[in-house]
Design goal:
It contains eleven helices and 13 strands. With about 500 residues, it is of the alpha+beta class. A hairpin with a 5-residue loop joins strand 12 (about 445-450) and strand 13. The protein is elongated and about 80 Å long.
Length: about 500
């Protein structure tokens, strides 16, 4: 036991020590910050013997033979030495499901500064003449109806305004799906709030606008990926990808069930409600691209910024994405990485960008072919060896910016997608020890992460079963991880 306690202590220290440090970016809507200092990982104990590969393989034979797992493939390595302890088909690309989120996590943590936030902004275009209509063609949007102060129509008289009434407000998304309509607890850590934006608009002296237009055009290309089920949106798995959405496209903050098929418009209408509560009358809503790019602040007549709200820092977004397997965050972060690297903020650009980052980190990507960055697509292919090599890159001291990849992994029996697992008699031994990203699709059930064995060695693993997830499948995969954790091999 001393070795095990020592190993756990070293890992806990490694996960908690130091600060993240990544290059800044000039991407619109992303606010970089001064680079903080980075502390190295404390070294893992090199005096602990490496496990015997034959003993590890023997330990895994029975749990991997469970019929519920079909014909699984997998890899186990010793984190410190890199020694392969078990290998079954690890260099053959397979569907990873949501274990792929470790890849976009690494890309985001490497691309953005640790204090970078995503900034949703509001701009105002004044009317052509005080109180006059908005010129034709100024709004590349479809008006979807009048919105009065009481929410039932263009009713009510606005209070005296410090600025000429009318004109257009532009809600410009920065790829932050945690932007929320909630005024109380929102389920996100320190989220950007529509109510905060509305209060700033009112404080700018704006009490009435002819149009409120949402701009989600930072992201380009199709909003759903090859290999996605048609039911993903209606089942509540993901929202069609847009740079503008509120509460992950949910109907109300914290809701479950179907997502909006038009998340940008849903966000605009939620903002219109927030504006009404703040005392700003909105005549109509729509979506479209704001003319003039980021707008002007010099009185030249272009859109003028009147409000902004910041997301939590990128590492907190990454942690949430990993812990709760947040598909909207995964797709947004992938596109933001692409945009920061000068690639299209689309599925194609995002998948290229995240694999480029892996190669730059020295992680092998042979055989990888991705269709999205959330892992929802059944067309995704990546080798287990790639994902386990990435975990080792995060553990070793050369890349401290990747530490959040480890702290974001769900903890067996305690957090996220593993919170309700490892509570049965045959898996309870793994509670608090197994830390891993889960994955499930109709063609694969997966688990990739780390355990500390009974000798105190940190082991990294990835297991992929070519079967649809079910209760028995999850339990069988958990038993494999427990066999590793209880191994004195």
């Amino acid at each position: 036991m001393p070795g095990r306690v020592g190993g756990l202590t070293a890992i806990a220290t490694a996960l908690l020590a130091g600060h993240l440090s990544v290059p800044p970016t000039d991407s619109p809507g992303i606010v970089p910050a001064p680079r903080p200092a980075a502390a190295p990982f404390p070294a893992l104990d090199p005096t602990l013997r490496v496990a015997d590969p034959a003993a590890v393989s023997a330990r895994l034979t029975r749990p991997l033979a469970n019929p519920a797992l079909g014909s699984p493939v997998g890899l186990v390595i010793d984190a410190l030495s890199g020694t392969t302890l078990f290998d079954r088909g690890s260099t053959t690309a397979v569907a990873p499901a949501s274990t792929l989120k470790t890849v976009v996590a690494a890309a985001a943590l490497t691309t953005f500064d640790a204090r970078t936030t995503l900034t949703t902004r509001v701009f105002h275009t004044p009317p052509a003449t005080p109180g006059g209509p908005v010129p034709d063609g100024q709004v590349a949007a479809s008006t979807v109806g009048a919105v009065g102060a009481d929410g039932t129509g263009a009713a009510g008289t606005p209070p005296p305004a410090a600025a000429p009434p009318g004109g257009t407000l532009w809600l410009v998304g920065a790829g932050d799906p945690t932007l929320t309509a909630a005024t109380g607890p929102a389920g996100y850590p320190a989220p950007a709030r529509l109510s905060e934006l509305a209060a700033q608009v009112r404080a700018a002296g704006i009490t009435e606008v002819d149009r409120l237009v949402g701009d989600g055009t930072l992201f380009t290309g199709p909003s759903t990926a090859t290999g996605w089920r048609d039911s993903y949106v209606t089942d509540g798995n993901v929202t069609p990808v847009s740079a503008l959405e509120a509460d992950g496209g949910r109907t109300t903050p914290g809701a479950t069930g179907p997502r909006s098929a038009t998340p940008d418009l849903a966000a605009v209408n939620a903002f219109a409600a927030a504006l009404r509560r703040a005392g700003v009358r909105v005549a109509s809503t729509g979506v479209g691209a704001m003319p003039g790019g980021s707008g002007s602040t010099d009185g030249s007549g272009g859109p003028r910024q009147v409000a902004e709200a910041h997301s939590p820092p990128v590492p907190l977004l990454v942690e949430r994405m990993l812990t709760y397997s947040d598909n909207d965050l995964a797709e947004s972060l992938g596109r933001l990485v692409a945009h920061a690297r000068g690639l299209p903020a689309s599925f194609d650009g995002a998948t290229r960008a995240v694999l480029d980052v892996l190669r730059e980190l020295g992680v092998p990507t042979a055989g990888a072919n991705l269709a999205d960055t959330s892992g929802l697509s059944t067309a995704n292919q990546i080798a287990p060896a790639t994902l386990v090599a990435l975990l080792r890159t995060a553990v070793l001291p050369g890349h401290p910016q990747l530490r959040t990849l480890l702290t974001g992994l769900p903890v067996a029996g305690f957090s996220g997608t593993l919170g309700d697992r490892y509570n049965a008699p045959d898996t309870r031994a793994g509670a608090g020890d197994v830390r891993a990203k889960t994955g499930s699709l109709r063609i694969v059930t997966s688990l990739a992460g780390q355990v500390v064995d009974t000798d105190g060695r940190l082991l990294l693993f990835g297991f992929f079963a070519p079967v649809e997830e079910a209760g028995s499948t999850r339990a069988a995969l958990d038993q494999v991880a427990v066999a590793l954790a209880s191994c004195g091999c």
